[in-house]
Specification:
Blueprint: E1 4-9, H1 10-20, H2 36-52, E2 56-60, H3 68-72, H4 85-88, H5 91-100, E3 104-106, H6 113-126, E4 130-134, E5 148-156, E6 159-165, H7 167-174, H8 181-188
Parallel strand pairs: 1-2, 1-4, 2-3, 4-5
Antiparallel strand pairs: 5-6
Helix pairs in contact: 1-2
Length: about 200
């Protein structure tokens, strides 16, 4: 049986955990530091470690520095709201927790977590591994192959539900091979990243 890599989109999963356990009774440390995102992130991570049973595990994070996409297009992610202070305060905490667990934390200035996930998944696949990508960002679906699957968790009524995308799932849902999602996204545009797409071409 091939070895398996589980690579996690740290920002995406932490963001999802933050909003899933947010409210007037937000979890905090004794000094008032919020911990809801850390708690939720670890619950999600442990669930998929148990289910996927990976041989290798890494978590990729974005850094604040601009990326090569900003150099290509000035409007990239323009207008996007910044990270809430309560979430930003938990970013160093989750990295400390992961490092204490001996989990690889990967971040590179000028690259997004998406880029690192693409690089690591492609490299691992070439090395003969099976790869599972844990993310809430459907941009990762373009990476799906016979040996790379994308796990997208959603939360409903406090329960974490899973959609696992394989090439068959992509073809069934979108009507194309995974690599063609790149062209579809380019034509459609992406409001979340302020990418305009081709005028007159919609979903």
């Amino acid at each position: 049986m091939n070895e398996k890599l589980l690579i996690v989109d740290g920002n995406s999963i932490l963001n999802r955990a933050f909003y899933a356990i947010k409210g007037p009774k937000m979890l905090t440390k004794a000094d008032g530091t919020p911990t809801n995102a850390v708690y939720g992130f670890m619950n999600i991570l442990n669930k998929y470690i148990e289910e996927e049973k990976p041989d290798y595990l890494g978590v990729a994070f974005d850094l604040k520095a601009k990326t090569f996409r900003h150099q290509m297009f000035d409007g990239y992610k323009a207008g996007r709201k910044g990270m809430p202070d309560e979430l930003a305060a938990q970013m160093p905490i989750i990295k400390q927790v992961l490092k204490a667990m001996n989990v690889a934390v990967v971040e590179v200035e000028g690259l997004e977590a998406d880029d690192l996930i693409g690089i690591y998944s492609n490299t691992a696949e070439k090395e003969g591994m099976e790869v599972s990508i844990l993310t809430g960002d459907r941009d990762a679906l373009q990476l799906v192959s016979d040996h790379v699957s994308v796990i997208v968790p959603t939360t409903q009524k406090g329960q974490t539900l899973t959609t696992k995308y394989t090439p068959e799932e992509i073809l069934d849902k979108y009507g194309v091979e995974p690599c063609s999602l790149i062209e579809i996204k380019a034509l459609m545009g992406d409001a979340s990243d302020n990418i305009p797409g081709v005028k007159g071409v919609g979903e």
